[in-house]
Design a protein that fits this description.
The chain has 345 residues and is an alpha/beta fold. The protein contains eleven helices and twelve strands. InterPro entries: GH.
Length: 345
């Protein structure tokens, strides 16, 4: 497995799986599931599309947060303080359980006034060995319970490089975590299903099924970077339309309590390879990044349908607010714009 699933420490994500035969073999048992997923979406889409125009959705006052990472160091403490941001997201990779005390200490270093979402990142070992997942999720909940009560379970579940080969694999994974929560940690809230990009057929399959699961909040990694400005359209939908459709889907589903969190979004930066998470074609200048970020946050806020939005992330040369190459901290124009936007919250 270590030869298939490899982590790119530059772009903070797994490398694409290059072994196509392996990926095909792993997805083959789920052929009927994929077929039923698209058929289900064919039924759900027109209903949710119409529902968005008649539903009564509780208005939200969107809170804006930022992603911080253990491997980016303690420089983040001062940067978070300067930004004035209160809502933080920390990734907790299941493959780094031996470092969990370091992750807990890192979170505590931001101060007791911060509100955290712990993003539990999956790996293939914990997907295939649910007993191992049960053991380690108990440890995570126990270690972090005095710091955080919200946990995103899984990340980018519709990307094979992240470890899941079907939605049902994710739902099995989530069910184990939910059972542990229900039995031992009732105060904890679970967030999912963490579908990345505008691929709502995966979201629909997670929201409309006969599983005994419940998402306390609905998470979406709603990137629009490949389309450029947030007003640009994909299949006729701009960012505002995508949010409205997602809200309608959440409103109709018995699996969600209708609160929506955008847990990841950003833009890749020009001339930052290998740190940029996409090809140079999709990359933007720092000034474009600043403008698109402002537009994205303002559009999401004005829908009054997003509970929290987390920009991904604070320090990352290829897509973040701060460039730390060569051991130097350089704040981009977007850093100061983000600080201004936080002040407007």
């Amino acid at each position: 497995m270590n030869n298939i699933f490899k982590w790119d420490c530059h772009s903070d994500q797994p490398y694409i799986i290059t072994d196509k035969a392996f990926k095909k073999e792993k997805k083959k048992p789920y052929f009927l599931e994929y077929l039923s997923m698209f058929l289900l979406f064919g039924l759900v889409f027109p209903i949710t599309f119409l529902w968005q125009f008649v539903m009564r959705f509780p208005k939200t006052n969107m809170q804006v947060g930022i992603g911080v990472n253990l491997d980016k160091g303690e420089a983040q403490y001062a940067l978070v303080k300067e930004l004035g941001v209160q809502h933080l997201m920390i990734r907790m990779p299941l493959w780094e359980m031996e470092k969990i005390d370091e992750y807990v200490a890192f979170a505590q270093g931001f101060g007791a006034d911060k509100k955290f979402i712990i993003n539990v990142l999956q790996d293939r070992d914990h997907i295939e060995d649910l007993a191992l997942l049960k053991q380690d999720i108990k440890i995570i909940f126990d270690k972090f319970q005095s710091i955080a009560y919200e946990y995103q379970i899984g990340n980018a579940i519709n990307r094979s490089k992240w470890g899941f080969f079907s939605v049902s694999e994710y739902l099995d994974f989530y069910q184990v975590v939910q059972n542990i929560r229900d039995t031992n940690f009732q105060k904890i809230q679970l967030i999912g299903p963490s579908v990345i990009d505008f691929e709502y057929y995966y979201t629909a399959f997670a929201l409309f099924n006969f599983r005994k699961i419940k998402f306390d909040k609905l998470s979406s990694l709603l990137y629009v970077d490949r389309r450029g400005a947030p007003d640009n359209r994909q299949y006729g939908f701009n960012l505002k339309n995508k949010i409205n459709l997602l809200a309608a889907m959440a409103n109709l589903s018995p699996k969600s309590n209708h609160k929506i969190v955008i847990t990841e979004t950003n833009y890749p930066l020009k001339a930052t390879a290998p740190y940029a998470p996409t090809s140079e074609k999709e990359c933007v200048s720092e000034l474009e990044y600043e403008q698109y970020m402002q537009d994205y946050i303002n559009i999401a806020r004005k829908t009054h349908k997003i509970s929290h939005l987390y920009w991904h992330q604070l320090i990352a040369p290829g897509y973040g607010l701060v460039d730390n190459r060569n051991g130097k901290i350089r704040k981009t124009p977007a850093f100061y714009k983000f600080k201004h936007l936080i002040g407007q919250t």
